[in-house]
Specification:
- The protein is about 60% helix and about 0% strand.
- By secondary structure, the protein is mainly α.
- The longest helix has 23 residues.
């Protein structure tokens, strides 16, 4: 999945779950935690594998189920330190959504779900690539654009628009967390009657 797809997927999962439990919209700190968590596995694994060659592949350490408890503990400690004690909850939902999204993303290309990467390092799943971060990025971007241009690309585009549109509508319903709140008329001069 691409970063915007991970963000949309994670936001949808967290927003719906949060509304079901609390009956309230997502706050800005929670939205930011989801945003960071949905990108973190790729931010860790891709550069360490593709550029620095410290990991065997771009889907290894941070995509492993064994990495989830320590990174969630780190989010919990950051939340306590910053005064947002429940920050670990949106972080965990966002992080798990990334792993879930990677596991089912092949379905959009006609493949089957695969979650074997969760068992790294016990189970090696992808071929190592040492072409570099930007070379790999443009390789995958080329494949993405090729898919969009193919007949199957119409289905992919419809799925993507549905995903992004749903996330955007939920974000609006939540009050657009992360944007300053404007009240119509609040900046108008007060009139005495």
């Amino acid at each position: 999945m691409w970063p915007w797809e991970h963000l949309a997927f994670g936001y949808i999962l967290y927003s719906v779950a949060h509304r079901l439990v609390t009956r309230r919209g997502v706050t800005t700190p929670a939205a930011l935690a989801v945003a960071v968590a949905t990108q973190l596995p790729d931010i860790i694994d891709k550069p360490l594998a593709w550029t620095f060659e410290l990991l065997p592949s771009g889907v290894s350490l941070a995509h492993s189920a064994f990495f989830v408890p320590p990174v969630t503990l780190a989010a919990y400690l950051v939340g306590r330190w910053t005064g947002f004690k429940r920050l670990w909850i949106p972080f965990l939902v966002g992080y798990l959504s990334h792993l879930l999204g990677d596991g089912v993303s092949d379905v959009a290309y006609g493949g089957s779900p695969s979650f074997s990467f969760l068992l790294w390092p016990l189970y090696e799943t992808s071929t190592p690539s040492r072409a570099g971060l930007f070379s790999n990025f443009f390789y995958y971007l080329g494949n993405y654009l090729e898919t969009l241009a193919s007949p199957e690309g119409v289905v992919y585009i419809l799925l993507e628009l549905s995903l992004l549109g749903t996330a955007f509508l939920l974000w609006l319903w939540d009050g657009a967390p992360g944007l300053p709140r404007f009240r119509l008329g609040s900046s108008l001069p007060h009139r005495n009657r």
